[in-house]
Amino acid sequence: MHLTLIQPSVGRKADGSPYPASWRMEPLGIAMLSSLTPRDIPRTFFDDRLEAIGYDTPTNLVAITVETYTARRAYQIADRFRKRGIPVVLGGFHPTACPDEASAHADAIVVGEAEPVWAALLADAAGGRLQSRYAAERPVLAGLAPDRSIFGSRPYGLVSLVETSRGCRFQCEFCSISRFYRRRCIDRPVEEVVREVRGLRKPIFFVDDNIGSDPERLRALCEALLPLNRPWIGQASLHIAQDPALLGLMRRSGCQGVLIGFESLDPATLANMGKSVNLEARGYSRAIRAFRDHGLSIYATFVFGYDQDTPDTFRRVFDFALRQKFFFTAFNHLVPFPGTPLHDRLAAQGRLLHPQWWLHPAGCFGEVVYQPAQMSPQQLAGLCESHRRRFYSLPSVARRALDLRANCRTPRKALVFLAQNLLHQREVVRRQGLPFGFPEDRP
Length: 443
Known about the structure:
single chain, alpha/beta, TIM Barrel, 17 helices
């Protein structure tokens, strides 16, 4: 038996523009599947973001990991292999949210996390008895580690991705994570995380949905990381700002900054989206100051398009982001991912422009696929793009570089700040309008 693993891209522009560099990160899910695959099963890996897929490669099973943004492209790839008579298995967030849709393009799908069922699935495939659907309870992460040898020499980003836990205990209306992970967090043993980090050369990005969900576990992780002196970043919620001792420990353990979902400056909007943790933060400015006082930069994300939002909302957020000198800021429009309460609400209200927007023939990244309350879809999309451009313009970069406590605390970090902000300036153009799927493979 021969296994082929595939990481699909979102799509490709007809003019051949390079794929966004910031999206070319290590495919950690693929590495985990490779780790779980018996050593006597040969495997081939194709990363659609970086290379052409070898559709004529001899293989007995193709496994593709699918997110909503990559669904159309993943189905194109799956259909071509199945025309050759090669069985295909699809798994990930999107097949879990849309199992019947995904099943139309696969011989088998995995609903939920793959680890508990992967061995049985491979055995079934080898024996010619592949089932149409595999589902399992949540896995135990102890003893699991990704097989990074599958990456080969591919030019992934400047950080290595490491997972210390999965899930998030919060339930934001627009987020697909809480449903996929059933609002439960599961942890890897800290000593196994540290062992993995010790074997890596690049700075670390801890991909946990909320590395600060359990402050005591984060404290234990930071203490274990102290001897390694490795730079790292992660995603966290605002509530850890109320623990200055923890922030200091994070910095000493190598933390350079955190990604925080601020999402909105309006308390009513935060309440509507279920972002209760932000309402408990006792003020954004105070929390931001706590991070900066400990030398921690902030990548701030905001979501636009809730019913209270107007064009003036963008002005207020932009002024706030510039005043706070955020390292990065994301100006994202609301996206109704399938399986989320947001998608269900907008569908019930008749506000979805395309119920399966991820499969729409003209679908592309940056398009607003529902009717906002106080703007047109085109106006909302245009405001997001224009404010991304403004935030990564040279005057904005220069002003934010004046933050010597966090963004440019050392010469090395100043160089990283400048290089990454100029990269994001270019990425705005590369991402906007990126089609779902490859033009030549569209029906």
